[in-house]
Amino acid sequence: MNILIVNGSPTESMLDIGITELKALLEKHNHTFDELTLRDMNYSPCRGCFNCWVKNPGKCIFKDDGDILCREIIHSDMVILASPLIMGYPSALIKNALDRIIPLIHPYLEGIDNEAHHMKRYERYPLLGLLLEKEEDTDQDDIDIINEIFTRAAINIRSSIKFITYTDKPIEEVIHAINHN
């Protein structure tokens, strides 16, 4: 499986150690992988102009690393979004990255399961996984909210969540989720 790890930690942290361990395990299990470290990339936040839908379909007007992000995501079988929780939510880097991938879908809507969803621009989209570093006060309500938000976000980009796990659990659980669920 071709896996993209999107590191959304704004600073070097324990999450980076977990990602290093994960990459070693991915290699051991014969998965190919790449990592995008968002703090080292240059991409502007989405400004909601929708030019990527209307004027220049599939391409953002910003000529920055957002193009790399879109290209790497659409060419992956799975994308693992890795982030510390900050005030109960993954980092702003992850949120901005998700906003910048809207060129991967059409602006047009269709009905699916009694809901309106954007039409696919591509035939296939990667599965999503979340690897999150909890805060001291992270509780079950925080976890439930994150689960709901990212499950809905996955649907909007025509994907699904394969797993949500936390760095306080053995990193082998991520490999198990990739290989067996």
List the helices and strands and how they pair.
Blueprint: E1 2-7, H1 14-28, E2 32-37, H2 66-74, E3 78-86, E4 89-90, H3 92-100, E5 105-112, E6 115-120, E7 127-133, H4 140-156, E8 161-166, H5 172-180
Parallel strand pairs: 1-2, 1-3, 3-7, 7-8
Antiparallel strand pairs: 3-4, 5-6
Note down, in words, how this protein is organized:
The protein has 181 residues and is of the alpha/beta class. It contains five helices and eight strands. The radius of gyration is 16 Å and the shape is globular. Strands 1, 2, 3, 4, 7 and 8 form a six-stranded mixed β-sheet that branches. The protein has a single domain (2-180), classed as Flavodoxin domain (Rossmann fold). The protein starts with a strand and ends with a helix.
Q: For the terminal residues, how far apart are their CA atoms? A: 14 Å
Q: State the CATH superfamily name.
A: Flavodoxin domain
Q: Name the average pLDDT.
A: 93
Which value, in Å, is the CA radius of gyration? 16 Å
The count of domains is 1
What percent of the residues sit in helical stretches (DSSP H or I)?
A: 25-40%
Structural class: alpha/beta
Enumerate how many helices there are, as a single number. Answer: 5
Largest sheet: 6 strands, mixed
Net shape: globular
Remind me, CATH topology? Rossmann fold
Oligomer: single chain
Run of helices and strands? EHEHEEHEEEHEH
CATH class reads Alpha Beta
| The CATH architecture | 3-Layer(aba) Sandwich
